[in-house]
Specification:
Elements: H1 6-22, H2 24-37, H3 53-65, E1 75-76, E2 81-83, E3 86-88, E4 93-94, H4 98-102, H5 142-159
Antiparallel strand pairs: 1-4, 2-3
Helix pairs in contact: 1-3, 1-5, 2-3
Length: 169
């Protein structure tokens, strides 16, 4: 069960670094947060993660724009139902397009822009943000995945100086 989520962590880490390198002010703000809370005398460890709010916001914004599983895991309707005027027969395979939900301009201000600050006031309420699914069918590895990505991303920011090789995005 844990092996199924390994690739998703790498995908999220890769997209996070891409967004940071395309938004150098965000990268600098993340580095400043790490310097403030950890300093230069030691490496990031898991006890530091709860204090790294901005780095967590970067991860949340990355998951919003680039969910590792953009259509979530398919489900099958156990009963027939009607959703917004559409009749769904029993046994229908259902997919949730979180990529579209996370980029919906009716839900998100500047929906296609990378803005970690949108998460500053805590968790987003309702079903606007669901990169791991929701409820009983949500990803069982959500907390572990966010923890691993937080440690890896924080370590990459803390331990290396990053710069773009060209100005092309």
């Amino acid at each position: 069960m844990l092996l199924g989520g390994v690739n998703t962590e790498f995908i999220t880490l890769e997209w996070s670094m891409s967004h940071l390198l395309n938004n150098l002010n965000t990268l600098q703000k993340s580095k400043s947060e790490l310097d403030f809370h950890i300093g230069h005398g030691r490496l990031l460890d898991e006890t530091d993660l709860p204090r790294l709010h901005y780095v967590q916001n970067v991860i949340s914004e990355t998951l919003r724009l680039n969910p590792a599983v953009p259509l979530l895991i398919p489900h099958v309707s156990s009963d027939r139902c009607n959703v917004l005027g559409y009749n769904i027969p029993e046994g229908t395979i259902l997919l949730v397009n979180v990529w579209a939900i996370h980029r919906d301009p009716k839900v998100w201000d500047e929906a296609t822009s990378f803005k970690p600050e949108r998460f500053e006031n805590g968790r987003i309420k309702g079903c606007k943000m669901m990169p791991f699914g929701l409820g009983r069918r949500g990803c069982p590895g959500m907390d572990l995945g966010q923890h691993v990505v937080g440690l890896a991303l924080g370590s990459l920011i803390q331990c290396f100086e990053w710069k773009r090789l060209s100005s092309k995005k």
